[in-house]
Design a protein that fits this description.
Elements: H1 2-22, H2 28-43, H3 54-78, H4 84-90, H5 94-106, H6 113-130, H7 139-161, H8 167-173, H9 175-192, H10 202-227, H11 232-238, H12 242-254, H13 260-278
Length: about 280
């Protein structure tokens, strides 16, 4: 569980860097593609494809393409129709999709009721923190965000259930994950990017290096490794812990205003959902 908490902190800090140094200056599709290329370069020297069958490599490539590549494609289009608070609000349904897809895709036995309750509580907690007035044309944006949530949830669940061997073995095959992500984001960049908005300053490249090697490279590996070590309800609820973590990082480092009363109430609700998901049944 500590791995998921560590990655949550890592990603929360990364969102602040994107907002401060990249958003509005570097095209989102270009930034994401650069991140995936850097993450791929991090794992290519370690790649030992003989450790898995080509069928497994294909599955891992597809997971990377959907969990990151297609997810970002939907996410960046949603910003054309939604405000930032609305985007954050609509991502709170990810725990539901993690739980539902785990049940539907892998035909598990009936999931414990407390897992469903924990997932619902996690959504409620995040809603308390992030709820804001909705714009008139939010429906299309809402559907795009739900598609992004489904891609991210499906990637986590599928990776969790793949037989990939030990953690060391997973490190040696994880390049396949980023091959899929790089292909998907490369196609998206070719179709939708404004090629005039490429990174031009040293600070922008330093931020992209950190995002590519740290947040994307090490972050996605650690998150997926952590997903294999927790139950599906713990994984589902942890998806929403990024919201209060991101608000705190923005306040501490960038002085952004924080709705403290909503953050406190929502944070307690989220922590309770994680505790409930972590309880062992009799």
């Amino acid at each position: 569980m500590w791995i998921l908490w560590a990655v949550t902190g890592l990603w929360a800090a990364s969102f602040s860097l994107i907002g401060e140094f990249l958003a509005g200056h570097v095209d989102g599709y270009i930034a994401v593609f650069i991140r995936m290329v850097l993450a791929l370069l991090l794992f290519l020297p370690l790649w030992q494809p003989a450790r898995l069958s080509w069928r497994q490599h294909t599955q891992l490539l597809a997971i990377g393409a959907f969990q990151i590549g297609v997810m970002y494609l939907f996410l960046y289009h949603a910003f054309l129709y939604l405000t930032v608070p609305e985007v954050l609000l609509f991502t709170i349904f990810t725990p539901f999709y993690v739980t539902l897809l785990d049940d539907w895709l892998f035909q598990r036995r009936r999931l414990p009721l407390r897992w469903w309750v924990a997932t619902l509580i996690a959504v409620m907690g995040a809603a308390v923190i992030r709820y804001d007035t909705l714009s008139d044309s939010f429906l299309l944006g809402f559907l795009l965000i739900q598609a992004a949530n489904l891609c991210f949830a499906a990637g986590q669940v599928c990776y969790k259930h793949m037989e990939l061997g030990s953690q060391r073995n997973q490190v040696h095959v994880f390049a396949s994950f980023f091959i899929g992500a790089t292909l998907a984001t490369g196609i998206a960049m070719a179709l939708f990017a404004d090629l005039r908005m490429y990174p031009t300053t040293t600070v922008q490249w330093i931020v992209l290096l950190w995002l590519g090697l740290g947040a994307s490279g090490l972050g996605y590996l650690a998150w997926n490794l952590g997903a294999k070590r927790v139950n599906v309800a713990q994984l589902a609820t942890m998806n929403n812990m990024l919201i209060p973590a991101g608000l705190l990082i923005n306040y501490v480092f960038w002085g952004e205003s924080v709705p403290w009363h909503r953050l406190a109430v929502g944070g307690v609700i989220l922590l309770f959902s994680v505790w409930l998901a972590s309880r062992r049944g009799r």
